[in-house]
Amino acid sequence: MSANFRLDGRCALVTGAGRGLGQAMAVALAEAGADVAGVDIVDVVETKQRVEAAGRRFAAIEQDLRGPAAVRRVVEVAAGAMGRLDILVNNAGIIRRADSVDFTEADWDDVIDLNLKSVFFLAQAAARQFVAQGGGGKIVNIASMLSFQGGIRVPSYTASKSGVLGLTRLLANEWAAKGINVNAIAPGYMATANTAPLRADAARSAEILGRIPAGRWGQPEDLAGAVVFLCSSAADYVHGSVLPVDGGWLAR
Fold this sequence. Notes:
Layout: E1 11-15, H1 20-31, E2 35-40, H2 45-53, E3 58-62, H3 68-82, E4 87-90, H4 105-133, E5 137-142, H5 155-175, E6 180-187, H6 196-200, H7 202-211, H8 224-231, E7 242-245
Parallel strand pairs: 1-2, 1-4, 2-3, 4-5, 5-6, 6-7
């Protein structure tokens, strides 16, 4: 059974791979046997070192993902560097915080463009690559607790992550027959740069921790098992699912 969870011979493209959740997932895929192309606008040297320490190849791609032309380039470069593409992990994202009455158009557009628009066009470009190669592929989108809940002071983030949930289901419906599995992971409150302002606010942090049955903030490495499973043949009959990795937050 364990062989079903191996990714030997497969090539993965992970966005936002320079740190945090993206780095942890890139390393997890490498440890399961995949070669990795990592995309980010920040330094990916540490990710490269960790992937190569696992005995796998790593291709660094520096690219701002806003815009379909940029997205197409990323998939072409990754497939060219790796020789093929079998897995896409749509992780790159940003968050902007402000009361909704004060929220700016720029903060709306920046978040939606990266968190939702690029997710669709990356999935589209990856699916075209999978079809051209034959043999299907795996797409894992990164959703959020705010795919299920409203949150506060993050209107564009909530809208984008709600959209990721719906888009995951739509693409699964369309592409399952092509051998392409489209699923999502919904991380809970994780200790990353995005949540630094929340963790720095003692009252808000205590409020959040009080709601998490596991009693702690999640760590990026907590996503390792989920991403390997969804990218492996063990998940061949899993389509359109959204797997919360949240310490029990949604069960509360």
